[in-house]
Structures are given as structure tokens and as C-alpha cells.
Amino acid sequence: MKAPHQYQRYIAAGGLALLVALAAVIGIVDSTTSFRVCFGALLFMICVCQLKVAADLYKHRNNLLLQLFQPGSLSLFVAAGAIASIASLLFAFSEYDATCALRQPIILTSITFMGNILIGRTWRIGSIISSTTTFASSSDEIDTLGMARLKVMNVLSTLSQVGRYYVGSCGREKIGRNSGIRRAIAFADSIFVVVVLLIPQLLLQIVNLSVPGVRMGSVEILEGVGVGHYTCESRAGPYVLIVGIVLAAMPFGISLLINVKSKGVPEKFRELDDIVASMTSSFWMLLATLPTVGMIGQTQPNARAYLLAASVLSFVLPLSYNIAQLKLQNVTSTGLARGNTNSKQGSSIQRQTKRTLSDLSSSQGQTKRTSLILKAAEETAVMGNMFGTMGFTSKALAMNQDILTLFKAEGDDFSWEAGFTLSEIYSLGPKSLEVVVKTLVGSAKLWHKIFLSNPVNEGANRMFVKCCTDALDIFEIAPAKKQLSDRSVIFPGYCFMNVIAKMMTYTPPNNMSREEFEKTLAENFVKETHYQQYHQCRALAFQADVMKRFGKYEDALSVIDEMKSIYDPQLHSRVLVKEYVTDQCSDLVAASTFWLHHFGRNDEALRLCDQVVETMLPEIESTELLTKLTILTPICRTLTNQTQTSAAKKALELYRTHVSDPVALAGGKAHPVLGMRVPIMIILKCYSSGGEAYDDLSTDVAYMLNRKDLSYPVFFETGALTRFDAAWSTICAEACLCLAKITGFNSHDESSALIKEGLKCLEESANTLEKEDGTIVNSMAHSYHSHTLSELENLSAPV
């Protein structure tokens, strides 16, 4: 049975008194054996206490608050300190070569590991927070210290990426693929960084142990007849020890650097003060112990061992207490460790916050209350985004719900179904409006993530649409909107709604038709982005996309012309990718090349193809293969439809250079959508060959005939339709058609099989392109389908 909290203090005090008593006994014992027994008992008790903390951290690892401080890493941190503590006992056994050889590697490696854990934890938290701090300004210039911190963080991120690339996907399956602007940073990533940083110390200590001339050994020093004592020395002198100490100290210096205060990061997630406090107490202790060790020399081995052990403990114990023990005490003392379910923990935090605000409202002014609400919302948002980035989606949603509750009327909790009342919306100030809108859009993305992991979850499907539309509605009607000079807070909501509209089935609010709703969204987005160039470009791309989606291609082309008058690829492309994940402007310009060709404006289409290839394609990172696929597919379709074979050859070379070959090099690490490239490459090879057989023709024929054995993602069909104005199955049918034309001269059986497969593909696309009432979903895609069907039927007709 667990002791009540008040008795735990007495138990701790009793344990401390026992440690002091043991230390006193050590000071008065005469014999070496008695000293070692008492000294060993003292270090053993300290080690047990540290291991108890490590075990408790692991025990409470599912606690809502403690998870944000990475209890797994903290547990390893304290355990490493425990190893260093108990290894200090080796200082008392200088007469053995083994103890002399082992004490330096064990202690220095353990301390280095502790420092590396600090770096790994801070990097993981910092990487998450730096991209999820939602309410801080990012416009300030970075000073020299901040730039140094940023460089260190980037180096650590690179190490982690190397680990993911070469070591594998350890720890990622639970989180899943993350194709957004932030990737999930798993516990395994931070541990990989820790281990890599430990390598220099490990190599040094391996050399220290394995090279006889470097290894420390026991040396007897005689002071008279029958009088002497043992000490540990190395023939290499103190140089290896000095290098080891420097390597052990460096991680703590780095951890101080990357814990430097950065704007927008809550205090509770920075450990700068804790590390400084630990270093300060260690400094004063070392100031007393190390000079004393030097003064007594080798004449008092027991005192020397005690002082050296005290030096190690002075470094280890303050860190263990300030970094780990205090966090554990905070969790257990607030009672949050009891009950590890999300709802219980979330409710506890929510009640605590609301109670504070309730007390404040009766004693402080509204301005002060609003300020504290925003501060509470900021810290909770960081915690929620950390949960989301670490893969705990439901916990991130619980945090977001707590944030939204802060802006409800007193006594009310936020409900995803009910949302906010009009009076609550009207009461929002400008900053509160930003927080509410940003939280709702973030919640929509979290609900969408839940839906993608379980597509039969209709509740999640409905909820992510509702959260997004609620954010847009609140921003539209809130009076505080007029006080916002920067309205970019709502832009991600428009973009996410566009993704939903393109890829999902949803019910628009207020009984609006989809076309009317999406048209209004696009108009509002354009209106909100006036005088903000790259945002304006993105809004116009959104508007053109909506027009295209409802078959108004000429109107879409007019909007794209307006967008091109503003859009500068060199200036805007990378900024758009950073802000919106993709550059939809270049996507739409590339897509419009095929629209122009389709409507008979072929010269314009070819000029635009050259413009995209020369000015927009170079701005795309070499690793962004999916973006290159999206941009080059409509361009290559336009080029292959030209009468000259040279145009098809140009298309093939473009596609092979920028898409096909890089995907082949990436292997299994390539995005699944890049599987679309194979039938497209087959079409390009057939056109560029002028209807003649080419080298790997048989391989391509086998690929298309065995297509039924391949597992294509279900979103290929609709994804190709929204991006390329062609159903995926129609593209496959054209690949079969092209191959059938070439093989028909040599193998009637192969040609017949390809025609049959192509017609089967067109049956799939017919279902995609026509609704049950006969309505055509996409006129351009339907025209492509009809043309391919006509050619296949003509090819299959008996001569």
C-alpha cells in the first residue's frame, strides 16, 4: 500500500538522516575494510534511490503531463547517473588493476550519456515546439546565439534523418507516415542521436581499456619499510583522462546552448535554469573537493576515494534531482498520476485551469483575465501540438478541446458538436479569435488523421469537416476580425477545406450546394489575401482549382493569368511550400498547359510548357518527387499529343530525368503515389518510339497484363482525376492501347490481351466519370475516356 503524501516526506527525511549518519561513520572508521563497507553502503543507498526514481518515471510514463517530458529518456538519464554513482566505489579499490582500468570508462561514459540524453531530449522537444509554437511572432531577427542554436539543432536533425535512412523505421510504425510539413519525431530518433553523440567517448574508452600503454593500472607506492599504499596510474599520463573529461563536459555545454531562451517557447519546456542550477552547485562542491584531493595527494587513499566519489556525485545528483526528480514530484503531488486515461487527465487539467480563471475573474480586471487565458491557451497548444507530432492524436485533440473551453462562457465545456454560441463568438477579442480559429483548423487536421487511419469512422469524417467550416464561419462573423491587420491565421483553413473538397465526400453547411459553397470559399480567400503577394497567389490558385473542378476551364484560365501576373517562382515557390506544404500555383500553371491544348490553344500551351520547365521546375527540391510528378504529367501529356515525335522524346527525357530515375533510386522509400509513373512512362516510351518496338517492350507488356496482381491505393483513381483531369484507369487503358498498337504486328495474342485489359480499365473509369443519374463528373477526363475507348474498339474490330 502506498504511503500517504505527508508520510513520504518523513520517509525521505529519515533516509537522508541515514545517509548523513553513514557519512559520519565513514569519517571516524580506521580500517580500510570498514571504510569500504560503509562507503559501499552509502553509494548503494544513493544508487537505489536513483533507480527508484528511474523506475517511478517508467511507471508513470503514460501520464499526460509527464509524457511531454519524455519519461523514457528521463528514466535512462537517472539510470546512467545511478551507474556513475555506484561506479564511484571503484575509487576505494586502487590495489586492483581491473578497478583502476574500469572506473574511468564507466564513470565518464555514464556522465557523457547523461549529457547526450539532455541534448536528445532538448532537440526532440525543441524540434517539435519550434514548429508548433502557434502564438509567437517569428518576425524577429535571430541573434548570434540563436543562430548557433539553430545550427546545432539542424545538425542533430540531420543525424536523425541519417538514422532513419540507414538504420530503418524503428519506432515509426506506431506513428505512421507523416507527409506534412513536420514529421513525427519518435523516441527512437532521439536515442539514435544520443548514441551517435556517444561514439567519440566510447572510442576513447575502448582505446583506454584495450591499449596497455594507455590503460590505467595499480601502482604500489612505498613510503618506508612495510608501509605503502596503492594508486592508479597510466603510462600515458593524464592526457586520456583530460580528453575524456572534455568529451563528457561538451554535451552539457551543447545542452545549455540549445536550451537558450527562444521566443514563444513556454518556460516549463526549457531546462536551462535547471541545468545552470545543477552546474552551479556542482561547481561549488568541486571547488572544495578537487583542491583537497590535490593537497592530500596519495597519502590518504580512503579520504582521496571519498573526495573523488563526492566530486562525481556532486555532478550527478543535482542533475538527477533538478532534471528528473522535480518533474516526477510535480506529477505525483498534483494527483495526476492516478488515472492514466486521457479523459481523467484532461478533465483534471481543464478543471484546474477553469478554477484559476474563475478565481481571477472575481478579483482581476477583464484585461488581466484575457491575458492569462491566452497564456494558458499558448502553453496548452504547445502541449497539444507536441502530442500530435509524437503521434498521440487523441491526446492532442483533448488538449485542443481544453483550449477551446477557455473561450466558452463560464461554467460551460466546449463540445465538438455544439461549438460556440453567437454571443461567445461576439465576445472574442482579436487575439482570442486567432487562437480559436487556429485551434479549430488544427483540430480538423487531427480528426482527418483519425479518419485516414480508420476510414469507416464516419464520426471523424463528419467532425473534421465541421471543425474546418466552424473555423471559417467564426472568422467570417466575429466582430474582432476587423481589428486584425494580418489575417493569415485563417488561410490554412481555406487550404485544408480545398483538400477536403477535392478528395472527400462532404455535406456543405447551411444547405448550400457544393459549387456555391466552394465558390464562396474561394472568393473569401482571395478577398482576405489582398496585398499579401504569395498568399494572394495561393488564393487565386485555389479559386482556379474550384472553377476547374466544376468544369469552368475558361474562367479558371483567366484566374491563372491573373495569378501569373503576381507569381514569381524564384521569389514565391519555396515560401509557398514552407507555408502550405505544396506550391499549388506551379501545379495549376502546369495543369493549365493541357487545358489550353484541349481547347485548341496549342501554341500557348507549348509556350507555357517551356515556361514551367525553365522557371518553375528548377525551384522544386530534388527530393520533392511527388511535386515533380504532378507538374510534369500534364506537360508530358501535352507534348505527346503533338504531331512531332521530337516533342514526345522531349517529354520522355523530362519524365525519366526528374521522376522515373529518381524514384527508382529511392526504391521502397518513395511515396506510394509515385507508382503512377509506370503507365505514364509506358505511354511516353510508345509515343517517342514512333510506334516501333523499343528495348524493354516485353517488360512493359507483362506489367500491364499483370496489373490485376498489383495493389494500387484506392485514391489513385480520384487523385489522378483531380490533378491530371484524367481517371487513373483511363491512363492505364491508354498504356494498354499504345502497347497493343506496337505488339499487334508481332503477337496477335498479346495485342488482344492488352486490348481486353484496356477495355476492362475503361469500365472502371466509366464508373468514376459518370454518376448514377448520368451526370459527367469531369468533361475533359470524359473526353479522354471516350477517345481511348473509340481507339481500343477500332483496334479490336475485325479487319
Automatic annotation (TrEMBL):
Feature: compositional bias, Polar residues: 337-351
Coiled-coil residues: none
Region (Disordered): 337-364
Keywords, comma-separated and alphabetical: Membrane, Transmembrane, Transmembrane helix
Highest taxon of the lineage: Eukaryota
Signal peptide stretch: none
Transmembrane segments: 7-28, 34-53, 74-93, 105-123, 184-207, 239-260, 272-293, 305-324
UniProt KW Membrane keyword: yes
Name this polypeptide is given: Uncharacterized protein
Source organism per UniProt: Skeletonema marinoi
